[in-house]
Amino acid sequence: MASSAIFNFLPSSSLSSLSFRNSRTQTPFFYKPLIVKASTSVDYSSSSLAGTSTKNNNWVWKYKDNSVNIYYEEHDKGSDEPCKNILMIPTISDVSTVEEWRSVAKDIAGRNGKVNYKTTIVDWPGLGYSDRPKLDYNADVMEKFLVDFINSPDSPVNNSDKDLVVFGGGHAATLAVRAAKKGLVKPTAIASIAPTWAGPLPIVFGRDSSMETRYGFLRGTLRAPAVGWMMYNVLVSNEKSITSQYKSHVYADPEKVTPYIIESRFALTKRQGARYVPAAFLTGLLDPVKSREEFVQLFAELEGKIPCLVLATAGSPKRSKAEMEALKEAKGVGKYVEVPGALLPQEECPEIVAEQLYRFLQEIYEL
């Protein structure tokens, strides 16, 4: 049977894994990269945080002949005071969700400072709580969605002064940088959290012609009506597989992987159409670039244009960490900070990540 051959040459543990300066005069530029190791503790004063208001809704993305309902959440103080807009984009994975950003979003939106912030988290098409149509997903499709979500007149993050900061994790971070490099979006600043560019299989097995043929076969099988669901249930959509990936490399500390996390992620994998984006992600179709050199060059193109913070992680898998460390002294990276965690630090260590991101916002807007 064809699926048996796939199991023999690709271990299931790797299949289910996550891979892995602005023209405004008041914006500081970091022409010489600043490299920092973050503290593992955060001290909040009793008056530093306020209550937040949360709203969730759907935005309709028009793509070719499809109308795709896109889920998003907004967090702010619930007041009429002016605020700066922040877009938070989840790490692309088979269990990607707005939930990974929720604690950080509420933290930053609730801060009492010189500037108020509204944080918006959006689920990718085909992932999280968004619709999951059977599209031919690739990096260009995901980039198109991101550009449309930011630029469309009816977008929840579109505003008259065009002032928007983008925070993204994993592949999402790199796709945002790629869109900015092309001039398709013009954010005030970008923060890349545990940025990646290679999908789970390419980062382990490479991209020679033989492997690309196998990836194509696997991708086609996962998208097939009957056998696709069977294979997806074995490789991805089961609690044992999700628990294994979270405890082995998504989180650095397996003790932080709670039953709730596993249950909520498992539920996401059972949504209609759930296997289409993972089929593309696992096999490298969502990779924004094809090499480390291209990855570094993307960030270099931001030099002198858009301030960029990179939050690398101390506990990432070896291959993914090597790609993050390639950005340590790269052009275009104004500040490089190492934080605890692995491939999802915004969920595993939200207080520390929120503190670093808030400091970045202060450097942009308050200094």
Automatic annotation (TrEMBL):
Stored Pfam families: Abhydrolase_6
InterPro entries xrefs: AB_hydrolase_1, AB_hydrolase_fold
Domain AB hydrolase-1: 107-355
Gene Ontology MF annotations: hydrolase activity
Name the UniProt record assigns to this protein: AB hydrolase-1 domain-containing protein
Organism: Solanum tuberosum
